[in-house]
Amino acid sequence: xxxxxxxxxxxxxxxxxxxxxxxxxxxxxxxxxHRDLVIVPVLTGSIIFVxxxxxHLPFKMHIGLMTVSRYRGATTEGGATQIVKDLNxxxxxxxxxxxxxxxxxxxTLKAVSQQLRERNPASVRICTLLRKPAKxxxxxxxxxxxxxxxxxxxxxxxxxxxxxxxxxxDIAVLREELYQ
Length: 180
Known about the structure:
- The protein has helices at residues 12-29, 47-54, 107-117, and strands spanning 5-10, 37-43, 62-63, 66-69, 82-85, 95-103, 123-131, 144-148, 154-155, 171-174.
- The chain is α/β, with parallel strands linked by helices.
- The protein has a single domain, classed as 3-Layer(aba) Sandwich (Rossmann fold).
- The strands form 2 sheets. Strands 2, 3, 4, 5, 6, 7 and 8 form a 7-stranded mixed β-sheet that branches.
- α2 (47-54) links the parallel β2 (37-43) and β3 (62-63).
- α1 (12-29) packs across α2.
- The longest helix has 18 residues, at 12-29.
């Protein structure tokens, strides 16, 4: 697997440090929250990130699972956003924190946020591990961002190519010839 990587972009130590910081930022934001917080990870890419992140949140919460897909097979171009598994928790009147692995074109997060807002939550905020500022739409605000990265194809720490590399502990740039 290591031979498929062009370089390590963000080390596991940097990820661990930043996830802890994000946890403290989120905890401060919801410190006076008297409504039930629902964490909605956008699966499958955010699974490792959300597992680490919630360990830093010092309050009760619910986890509402939702599986969304835009990439099919060995492609780097996103297709239409497809809800593969709908939310399994009632969110009306509750604060919702959507957790995703990466914000690039914003299509997935826009679709998920819109669908969640239609269910009348008290609030919807977004937390993303990575954001590509060169591609991220200006009309989509991420409330909590782990790292800004260049527009490169990244894998590891839950991010995949063709459903592989999710288990790599760092965030790395995939060698271009593997996805071209």
